[in-house]
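Final report, Chapter 2: Outcomes

The project's central promise was a pipeline that accepts a single protein chain and returns its three-dimensional structure in a standardized token representation, suitable for archiving and comparison. That pipeline is now operational. To close this chapter, we reproduce one record exactly as it appears in the project archive, with the input sequence first and the structure output second.
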Amino acid sequence: MAAAKKELQLQLETQVNALQKIQKDIAKNHQVRRQYTIQHGENEMVQKELEILDDEANVFKLIGPVLVKQDLVEAKANVNKRIEYITAELKRLDATLKVLEESQATKREEVMRLQQRMQAVQPGKARA
């Protein structure tokens, strides 16, 4: 009986650790997603500002401490590519989050099952 209890305890600890790792991954995913969402909004604002400009307007790009003159068409293309990339990353993060949340639900069920089995073993030992 003691060996079975120890085995259940070990399984429970393993599952709880796995659940905690998944929860950390979910938190990290949310943090990265928040950063990408902010960048997406910033790039959309830049895109709108670039659309307002005349074709002859001077556009400068900040590279380190220096402002470098950039062609308007090139600037628009760069911003569009950046928005596409960020959008793709957001979709990827959403898909990853869905998988993590499903995995989290499965681990929670396993932990609950193991806890119930442990509770069932303990009263039996107390009566004996």
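Archive annotation: Residues 72-127 form the longest helix (56 residues).
This record, like all others produced under the grant, will remain available to the consortium after the project formally closes.
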